[in-house]
Specification:
Structural class: alpha/beta
Radius of gyration: 21 Å
Shape: globular
Helix content: 40-55%
Largest sheet: 10 strands, mixed
Distance between the termini: 9 Å
Strand content: 5-15%
């Protein structure tokens, strides 16, 4: 009976984590889901890093989810490396030279501050063109969707380099803010600056100033990436991981021969920061659910069971990136090979910055295929609320 009941989106949240260029995979999954459920909407949206770009676009779009995702696919496929960061050899080589001078200069030349390996000014301009924004960078579509009741809240997380805190910026009405050790929420009107701050991969991309502080990628200190959605009232959470879940046999296989190059070390580090935390948070929440299910309503108090669905890649996105590496811009390819990306079978660090049409299209198509393969799990998740409310 519940299968034919109207789609109930109340309490439904979409949580999108980081992964740089891997964010294209999230878009593929979502487009396939939106196609299957035409009336679907997410009243609660939270995002980090590349997931923050997708979150901001969905939150600010006034169309249906299906048309929104079609637009977002076109947006991703129009990306080229030079629209994300400056790829000309002079900029790349001069930045690398400054890094070297900083390393060996003993603190001399403080005026020549090194902010990042690449300059992401092109990404800011790309987002301003892609999103409908006011002069101050705000996205009026978000407030319009909140006013119409389509959206309860949209939230983006970033790391405050000045205080070392995880900060979640929230736009919404009738919401309660929260504060926990080393993480807090701030009510605001989201802008392109907030998106840029959430996507600022440490060392690779420059920090972004919002107010008086400087911010970087939200995944650095956000130890509980599902928590913003829970604080905003979610009872069901759909999250799309960009981390391939290796089998035990695959996990035990060395990805590099001999001493690990910097690319391998950076890949492990970035995975630990941006990809592993969602899996850990999901595991914690599932344990809490099992405990709560054993309690009565009175014993639960303010705590509630959260239904969770995680969709993840069926293939290793790092290995796929290796196939497309020869088509990177020459200057950037020279630097990445210097880090040892060709020595590892799964250059995860490369998969974060490979903003080129062929690789992005491959990820979108994989996301759509994975969503189709998971259709039974998705159907069960969508039906869960209807089963509770069906007469």
């Amino acid at each position: 009976m519940s299968r034919f009941a109207p789609l109930d989106c109340s309490g439904l949240a979409l949580v999108l984590g980081g992964g740089g260029a891997r964010g294209a995979y999230q878009v593929g999954v979502l487009r396939a889901i939106a196609r299957r459920y035409p009336g679907l909407s997410f009243p609660i949206l939270t995002g980090v890093s590349a997931g923050g770009v997708n979150t901001a676009h969905i939150a600010s779009s006034r169309g249906t989810l299906q048309t929104t995702l079609d637009d977002l696919v076109r947006l991703w496929l129009s990306l080229t490396p030079d629209q994300v960061y400056r790829v000309d050899p002079w900029t790349l080589s001069s930045n690398a030279a400054r890094w070297g001078w900083r390393l060996f200069g003993g603190g001399l030349g403080e005026a020549e501050r090194i902010r990042s390996l690449v300059d992401t000014a092109p990404l800011r301009e790309f987002l301003r063109r892609a999103f409908v924004t006011d002069e101050d960078g705000t996205m009026p579509g978000i407030q319009a969707n909140i006013a119409s009741g389509k959206l309860i809240a949209a939230a983006l997380s970033a790391t405050d380099y000045s205080t070392s805190q995880s900060v979640t910026w929230v736009q919404g009405e009738s919401i309660e803010l929260w504060e926990r050790p080393q993480r807090k929420s701030i009510r605001t009107r989201l802008t392109v600056d907030h998106v840029m701050a959430s996507t600022a991969l440490p060392l690779l991309f420059p920090a972004v100033q919002v107010g008086r502080d400087w911010y970087g990628d939200g995944g650095i200190r956000l130890t509980a990436p599902l928590s913003p959605a829970v604080h905003l009232g979610a009872s069901r959470i759909l999250t799309i991981s960009t981390r391939y879940d290796r089998s035990r046999l695959e996990a035990d296989q060395p990805q590099v021969p001999g001493y690990p190059p910097p690319a391998q070390v950076l890949g492990v580090l970035y995975n630990a920061i941006f990809l592993d935390l969602i899996d850990q948070d999901v595991a914690r929440m599932e344990r809490a659910n099992r405990l709560l299910e054993r309690l009565t309503e009175a014993q639960r108090g303010t705590m509630r069971v959260i239904d969770i669905l995680v969709i993840r890649p069926s293939q290793d996105l790092g290995r796929i990136a290796r196939e497309y590496e020869p088509r990177l811009p020459k200057g950037f390819r020279f630097l990445t090979r210097g880090l040892g990306t060709r020595r590892t079978t799964s250059p995860d660090i490369l998969s974060l910055v490979m903003f080129q049409e062929d690789y992005l299209r491959r990820l979108i198509e994989l996301g759509e295929a994975d969503a189709e393969a998971e259709s039974d799990r998705i159907q069960k998740f969508m039906d869960s609320r209807r089963e509770l409310t069906a007469a």
